[in-house]
Amino acid sequence: MTTISYLQAIHDAQLDEMRRDDRVFIMGEDVGWNLLGSTDGFLAEFGPERVRNTPISEAGFTGAAAGAAMTGMRPIVELGLTSFMYCAMDQIVSIISKSTYLYGGQARLPLTLRATMFYGGGHAAQHSDRPLGTFMSVPGLKIIAPSSPYDAKGLLKTAIREDDPVISFEDGRLWTATSEVPDEDYVIPLGLAEIKRAGTDVTIVAVSGAVRTALAAADLLASEGVSAEVVDPRSLVPLDYDTILGSVRKTGRLVVTDPSHRTCSPAAEIAATVAEDGFWSLQAPIVRVTTPDTHVPFSPPLEAQLYPSAERIAEAVRQTLK
Amino acid sequence: MDVSRDLASEMYRRMVRSRSFELAATEKLQAGEIPGGLHTSVGQEASIVGACLALRTDDYMVGTHRSHGHPIGKGARLDRLFAELMGKATGVNAGLGGSMHLSDFSVGSLGETSIVGSGLPVAAGAALGSKMQGSDRVTLCFFGDGASNEGTFHESLNLAAVWQLPVVYLCENNGYGQLSAVSAMVSVPDIATRAVAYGMPGVTVDGQDVVGVYHAVSAAVERARAGAGPSLVETKTYRYHNHSFSLPPRPYRDETEVEEWRQRDPVELFRARLLADGILDDAGVAAIEDAVGAEIAAAIAFAESSPYPAAEAAFEHVFTNPIPIRR
Fold first, then answer.
1. Is residue A188 within 8 Å of residue A284, measured between CB atoms?
2. Domains in chain A, CATH or no CATH each
3. Is the ipTM of this complex over 0.90?
4. What is the pTM of this model?
5. Is A237 on the interface with B (CB under 8 A)?
6. Cβ neighbours of residue B282 under 8 Å, at least 6 residues apart?
7. CA-CA-CA-CA torsion sign (B50, B54, B56, B62)
8. Fold entry, domain B5-307
9. Potential cystine with A190: which of A163, A235, B55, B163 (Cβ 3.0-4.6 Å)?
């Protein structure tokens, strides 16, 4: 085992897969210059054919990834920040998500779209998006949202090996987080949640950066004598409802937290599903802890209050225990 | 005419196939047997067929929302295309795509996209795939005058040029983007001149002359295949029918203009030339037309007798590697 950072895990997953399969290549703005820190040394090892700096043309190069995938390549697209995905929205939704379906299964699109949720750092509304729910509601896209270096490496390797388009939503607040990863090759299947902390009194389903916050909340609650179970879905499409419903059957209480806006967030979808399929297990109303439906402000004290915090999650849990 | 007898006959055959297919489709649409709308290329067949025949079968082609003739030009079977128009299970897209999304990957027709301009980046990517695999395949990308005003036109041509991709961008300038005249919507008289901005050759040709289109596109294909990068070819052509059969007619153009263009009908022009040059005689022309007529009749019969997809088919092909669909 080696201890590495979340950003290093993303780097290592790509490195492994590019060494493993010649059809894998990466393109994006300044990937050759390691702009965002996930492609250090790639240009030197793989050369400019497989490490492609692109013009600032998100629709152009994202659509090009679709065409390259349809003709036998396995592109990784580093879109940079999630906010830039909107420039490529038509290519992602109309082309990438739909081509396998529209052409009756003739088209395969084995490609990975990577984007960082770059929030919490004073970058204001146009650089801080967490559009998880936006893309979950588009059929044809698989989505991973890793919360640790171990998960980031294992899930991203799976994504690159998938024969379908996968969006990797990476949490910029976790870039420097560390954990141990095995030295040998490993992958994490899509659709397999992990119980990050076992507990008996309440289930906290947490997504992406909110997992770390939920674990901090669970520590807080433990000091109050409350045993919280923290479940991380790890992939949002497919989403492992069996593990979530199993946990709720055990605890009878549910808090769901993710960094998206409240409306149509992963938390909203998970809450709705548990309300439909797990209602008779519930002993209290479900509570969501998300980002309010306002834009992300620039000024640090304004921004900091908006995202799920350990205290907000703990308070939500206390509400379910009343 | 600088092309072989066989090629000239094949050009005529494919133009007649495209024309007959679309006229048959409009009848079926008006009879209520084809759902949705229908955007025809009737009047544009020389551009389509001349360009497609400049390709090899293993080259790639990307079409538009107005692209029935394009897979036909590339060599696709008519029966599964017609079945697709009717939404049948035997359709080339399994009944999931319809008129605006015809495809046939078996002949390199990578599918049509119905969002104007959205196919241009995909074509650049197909060309990138070929280049990275060391293949000499070329990608032909059709788009219309309207798409030349989309951001994807700029992004794709620039990307194709800076990466020297083996792609030929073919603008079918049919005079109208939906209902608006090119003269009112495009900043230059010849869209091919926009190629200058991307450092690639641009040429404008008579889109009613199948042989002229063939030669212009062949030169661009040869250049791409040799590794010299992308080109832009503009064909000046004309759309006889309204934008779509699902929309009501509007007085956006003068009927005399349509009549003037019909005087230079690409199918009739080429038939006259074949006869004048002695490449085909009347019997040869009739033989092609009769064979196409029989092929169309068989395609329609195939489509009519095919079943609709089973209800469960709506949930297939969302992914290549399926996951449970939430319902």
1. no
2. 2-181 (3.40.50.970), 194-321 (3.40.50.920)
3. yes
4. 0.97
5. yes
6. B275
7. negative
8. Rossmann fold (3.40.50)
9. A235
